[in-house]
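seq:
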Amino acid sequence: MKRIKTILSCQVLFMLLSGVSAADEWDDRAEKGPFEQRPSFRKVGPPVLTQTQMEVAPEPSVGLLVDEGGAGETNELVVMLNYANAEKIAELLSLSSRERVGTAPAALERAFVAAVRSEDRNVGLVLHGAVHARFLASRYRMSDEARGAAEDSLRESMQRYIVLRYPSVAKAREAKKYYERDNSVFAHVTINQKAVLHWAPNDPYFSNPGPAAGDITPRYQWGLHAMKFPQAWEQVRGHAQIGVLEGGFPGYRTFVDTSKPNEITPHPELARNYRKQFVLSEISSYNVGPFAFNANHAMHVAGIIAAESNNGNNALPANSAGRVTGGCINCSITPLAYMEGSDSIALEILNAIDAGMQIINWSGSLTETWLSNTPPFPPFTCPSYSPPQAVNMCNALFEARRHDILIVQSTGNFMKNESELLAPLLMASDYPILPVGGVQALNNSGASAYYARWIYDSSNGSNVATMNGVVAPAKSIPSTIWPDAIHEAALFAMCGDAPGVDESAARYWNGYGDGVGSCTGTSMAAPHVSALAGLIRSINPRLSAFQVRQIIQQSGDAANMPSVQWGYGLPNAEVAVNLAIATNPSRLTPLFSLYSSARSDSFYTTVPQMATAALKGTLMPHGEGDKSAQTYISAYGNPINGYSFPKPPVAVIGPSQAQSPLAEVWVFTTHVNPKNAAVPLEPLYRMSWKCNDSLRSVAICNGPQPKHIDTMLVNQSEVNYFQWEGYQVDGLEGYVYPKTLPQPAGTVKLMRKFHPGRDDHAVFPLTALPAMQSQGYTVTTNGNDWLGYVYPNNNYGRTPVIQ
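struct:
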C-alpha cells in the first residue's frame, strides 16, 4: 500500500483539476489497483482535504540564498508569534482589531502572513525588510477546529511556525539580532539553515544495491531507508540509553576467555555500544542449552538498534564486523536477559530502571500459558492486579511510568486482532507503552514508501498495531547474528546467517557466515522504533516518555487517520526529529552535577533517568553482588528552572536544601555546530572505573571506600587512552564546542581536574577553578585539563541564548 504524503498532494490535486474526485480514484484503487493494495485502500477510505490544506503560497520576489562559506545560513527566519501580544502585533502591522482578527492563534497567523504577502511598505519596515512569509507547515495544515481540539500538542505547535524571507542573508541576520533583543512580536526566532544530505555509513549491507531482475526481496537494510533514518542522521546521531529486554544475552559464552566463565562476548558489531558493566547478574546459566537459541534473537534485535556504524569493509572479510549499521548510531545498549515467566520480565524492567535506562525494547510479550491455556486470553489490568499473576508486572509498569521510561513492544506474529493481543499491549493509555506491528516492502527498492502489512498466511503475519501503536519494517531485515547460526528455519519467519534462511546473503558471493543474517517478524519492527525513540530522547532528554511516544505517533504517515490495524502508520524519522527539535530549538541541555561521599565520586550526566539512579544509590556500575545503596546528591551549580527529576526520592537534597536538579553548565545534544556547520561539535564520553576492575590499583579501595568508583568525562580522542588505563565507556553525554574554534560569545571553558586523595575526576566551568582547587582538584590527567567550550548555568536556570 502506498501511504505517503504525495497521495494527499500531487495525486489529489490532479484529481481535482481533472474533475475526478479523490473518493472515485480511491474506489478505483480499492477495486482495480494492485492486488496487494486493495484491502488497505478499502479499509482506510479516501483522503479528505480541508481548505487550509490546499493553500498554495505565492512565489516570493527573492529566491532562497545561502551563505555557503559560513554555517549554511539562509536569508530566512523561522519565527513564532508572541500570542500574548496580539493587540501589539495588530497595531504594528496595521491589522484590524483583535476582535476582527480573532483570538485563536490560527486567525492571527493568517492575518500576519497575509499582511507580509501584501508587500505593504509599513509592514516591511516593521519587520526589518521581510519580503515574503509562508507557513512552515504549508502542506496539510490542520483546520481551525482540529487545532483547537489538539491545542498544546506537538503536532499543533508545529503549525504555529512561520518562515520570513529577507532580501539577503545579512538582512536576515540583522533582523534576527533585533528580535532577540525585542520579543514583542516573536516569541521564538531562529535563522533557517541549508540542509545537505551528505553523510551515509559505509557499511555494505546498508546501501541499496538496486533491484535484481525478478527479485522482490530487499537484500539490504531497507527498513532504515523506509523510515528516513539517513535524513534524520543529518541532525542527530543519537546517544540515548536503551535496555534490550530479551530471553538471552546478545553474545556467546563459548567465545570468551575460559578464565572468565561469567562473561559474554558480544557480537563484534555490538561491542562499541554494548554496556556489560550496567548488568549485575549471574549469567553463567544464560546462553547455554535452550537459552543459546535466544542469544541470536537478542543479537539481531540489538544490531537493528545500535550496531556500530561507518566501519564498513566492502571486501567483506570473515571477521564478522563492519557490515550493518544501527538506527541510533551512538546509543548505548544494555542487555536485560530474563529466563521465563512474567516475574523474571518484571525484575528486568526494574533492573533497567535502577540502571538509568531511558527506553526499553521488548521484542516479545508474556506467554499465552501465563494467563490461560486457551484463547480468548483474560484481560491484563493494572492496578487491580487481575489476574493475580499480574502483581509484579503491574508494579514494574508503574515504576517505569514514574521514571519516564518508554517501553517499545512488538505486537506479535500470529495475525491476532486487538482483543487477542497479549499483555501488556492494551494498557498504552495508562502506561508509556508503544505497540509496534510489522510491514513488508512490496518491491526490491525497499526505500520507497510502498509497503503492506506483513502477512505470510492466515496464521502467520503481523498482529494489529492497536490505536496507540505504529508499524515498522519487519520482513527480510538484515542485522547482526553469529556466523552460520540458524535461529528460525520456518518459511514464515526465516532467521539466520546460513543457506536456506538468510535472504540478505544472496547479495554477496560470500554472504553466508559473515555475521549478518536476515530475520522476519515484529521482533524486528520494534527495534526500528526504539532506535528512533533514542534519537528523540537524545535531542531533548527532558521530554516525558509520553511526549516521546506522541512525537513518534505524529510522525507516522497515518497520523491523520489512525486505525487499529495500522495505528499511526509508519514513522518518519526525519519528521520525528524535527518535531523533537521544536521542543528544544537550541539543542542545549543541562549537565547535571552530583557527588557521592560513599563512593568518593563526582558524577555528571545529561540523562534524568541516570541522575535518578544515582540519587537512589542504584547507579551502575558497582561491585558484583553489591546490593547496598551508595547515594549521590545534587552537588554543584544552580537549579534548572521549572524542572525536577522523574520520581525524585526524598533524599534528593543538595547544598541548596532544595530538590531541584543542579547543573553548572549546559551542553549540546547533537553534533550540529550552530556556529559553523562544517565543523562538528566535540562529543563528550562518560567513562568509569570501580574498585577491583583491572589495570589500576587505587589505595582508597583498600581503605575507607572499598565501594569507590571514578566516573569521568573525556574527549573522543582520549577514549582509547583511558580504556588502556582500565576505564570502560558508559555512554555519550553530549557535545561541546571544539577547543580548536575561537571561543564563542557567552561560553566558558569546561575544565577537568583530578583529586588524587579521592581518586576522583571533576568537570566544572573555568570560573569555579579556584574553589575546586581548594578542595584538592589540582592534577591534570592525560595532559588535558579542559574539554571544550560550554554555556554556564547562570541565567536563573533558564536555557542559555546562543549569541
